[in-house]
Amino acid sequence: MNAAPTLLEIKDLRIAFGGQVVVQGLNLRIQTGERVALVGESGSGKSVTALSVLRLLESVQLTGQVLWRGEDLLLRTPAQMQSIRGDEIAMIFQEPMTALNPLMTVGQQISEVLQLKKMLSRRDADERAVQWLDDTGIDDPSRRFMAYPHQLSGGQRQRAMMAMALASEPQLLLADEPTTALDAGLRLQMLQLLSDLQQKTGMAVLLITHDLALVRHFADRVAVMEKGRLVEQGDLADVFSKPQHAYTQKLLNSRPSREGLADAGRHELPHDMPVLEAKNLQVRYAIQKPGFRHWFQKHHFTALQGADFSIMAGTTLGVMGESGSGKSSLAQAVLGLIPHGGQLSFGGQTWQNAPAQDKALRQCVQVVFQDPYGSLSPRMTVGEIVSEGLRWHAPQTPEPQIEAQVLRTLAEVGLSVDEFPDLLHRYPHAFSGGQRQRIALARALVMEPRLLVLDEPTSALDVTVQKQILQLLQNLQAKRAMAYLLITHDIDVLRAMAHQVLVLHDGQVVESGEAHQVLNEPVHAYTRSLLAAFA
Question: In what order do the strands lie in the sheet with 276-287?
């Protein structure tokens, strides 16, 4: 059988910024209709390679060749590149909320592509845009056409981005981490949708990701990058079953494990009273229905109802479920950030919805968010960030004592002044993603909490860094006997961290129990569907 013709061939590509080389000697080929995954950690050069193909980077020095159907794109004029972008080669970016124009409806943005690239009339372009929204699985596409990006869920925004990229029917799609922020079920839905559309249109796809589970489900071939160099490439089965390079082997061996989890030791901790106990926990949001007759009526949307659970010292309760299942509402209620019904008890204490009365309890309940860069103030130094809680809760503490406690906590999470002599005076942007998450963790730990709420604490991190953070959390829990409320859509993280698991679906608890029971022998069909998404 004859091989498919080559669409894109990258030869000895070198990418540099101001003399600093970030990609060196890259050689990669993509054939018509092929699905290739470009894998590597942050900083490996994956995204800049894709952006260089489309010549979207400023102040960059490019050498080598980027051959598109035999013609070198590095020699094309800006006007010629403009005709290729979107029309022949399209791109889906990692974060749709920043890639989509917030001042235009998603339908207008898709229609604009069709008017510019396909020369359709406004009316025809609008009709075709609605069809593309339908093809990408968005419910009620005519209504969603008029929605702005902030009015859509994460999965819907990603589908809208996909519709915009595919509207001009490109021959090659560059998909840069297209599912990073999505739940497990949604990630597989998006990949299946992309696979279906790829087969329907015959386009080739370059999937850029650090998620090896996605690669297993999607790619025909895999190329692995490390520090700007392509270290290994080949068929999916060969690379995953017989990796040749040490870096590839490291990536494949980076799945979270329960090595540091104290399953037996946790029973020796004092369990007279749970750290957190919830009974019939409910969360409702007020909504306004359209129409005059609803103006003077109160309507509510129930996001969570009838949730019962408890967390003992030194143990982790993992909460799983798709977007809209009620996970975030549960976490916000536990943190005392939103009104709730039912009972929440922290060793006999409850939220009073009064800042002065809740001050002591806030010291005992801390949180680590999903995105460390977004949760750390860029205008505060590390010392200011980590010490802020101490200064608020214990304003009379002498400055040397505060600094000593901050340094001890930073060292506990793996950031020492020996490695970073000016640690306390650095700003968050000077650290890597994993280091920033350690800073966020230190900010919470410095308060010596009894309960730590972990909201997707590793989803934004590379697989090797993710494993390091999870091992750190395991060690800290064993040392401090803290209770964790872990919210995640990553089944591997649950397997590594959770002692108990709570499964939420449409605001209701559909299954709960010991982690090994729920994750290995699920009873409810919804739980089985979530686990199947990670099989």
Answer: 299-311, 276-287, 341-345
Q: Look at strands 172-176 and 204-209 and give their pairing.
A: parallel
Separation of alpha carbons 175 and 194, rounded Å: 10
Any idea which residue has 């002599």 for tokens? 421
- Give the H or E element holding residue 469: helix 463-480
Could you tell me if residue 30 is inside a domain?
yes
Strands 508-514 and 500-505: antiparallel
Number of domains in the chain: 3
| CATH (domain of 323) | 3.40.50.300
- What is the rounded CA–CA span in Å between residue 250 and residue 62? 30
Task: In whole angstroms, give the CA distance from residue 392 to residue 25.
Answer: 53
Enclosing domain of residue 120: 98-169
322 and 224 belong to one structural domain: no
Does any domain span residue 371? no
Which pair of structure tokens corresponds to residue 388?
Answer: 């802020």
Q: Strand 35-39 vs strand 221-226: parallel, antiparallel, or unpaired? A: parallel
- Sheet with 365-368: strands ordered across: 365-368, 451-455, 483-487, 316-320, 500-505, 508-514
Place of tokens 């802020």: 388
pTM of this prediction exceeds 0.90? no
* Beta pairing class for 61-68 and 71-72: antiparallel
Residue with tokens 């000077």: 430
Pairwise CA distance, residues 440 & 359, whole Å = 20
Antiparallel, parallel or unpaired: β 172-176 and 89-92:
parallel
Confidence of residue 521 (pLDDT cuts 50, 70, 90): very high
pLDDT at 4: 77
The predicted structure's pLDDT at residue 355 = 85
Per-residue pLDDT at 288 exceeds 90: no
DSSP state of 321: -
Compute the CA torsion angle 173, 193, 42, 424 (nearest 10 deg): 130
